[in-house]
Amino acid sequence: MRTGRLEAFSDGVLAIIITIMVLSLQPPDGHELSDLIRSTGIGLLTYLLSFMYIGIYWNNHHHLFQLVDQVSGAVLWANLALLFFLSLLPFTTSWLDQSRFATTPVVVYGLNLLVAAVAYFVLQRAIMRRQGPDSPLRRAVGTDVKGKISPILYVAGILSALTIDRGGPVGVGIALACFVGVAVLWIVPDRRIVRVIDQVDDPA
Fold it and tell me: Which domain range does residue 147 map to?
């Protein structure tokens, strides 16, 4: 099976996820900048963070399938699992906003990010198995330092929110810093897959 339908479906789902998140933003109660900051400021920040994550996954997903010619049933299901966990982001983002960064919503948000990262890893492995020992994706991913650091930071953030200054701002602040740190880590351009794509397109 070619990848066209999978990519089109994934693009559509990610677009809907972003639309749902922006529609959940509440307009300010008043007409001044202070009203915007007071009533919608946190919502804009949580939306920005989740938008960054969706954008990162969309970008990486696009590059990932530049190295894929055919997909198997395992790849389809792994891709659906990734989309499922990403589709929960509007809910966990909204809870994070409405709770004003309470401990439990922060932990649930972190778990959402963690399981999405695991699902992306599983998708990569399913593609590598489909491609066999000479997998161009395996060559592109290499040691995958970013992929190994990310879940460590997610777990560190979740544990910080649960154990440090329980109910206070310190643990939650560390957790949010970890989540933002992962986003910043992946926003920095990663040329691994692009280099392999160039090699495949121009083997000379």
Answer: 4-201
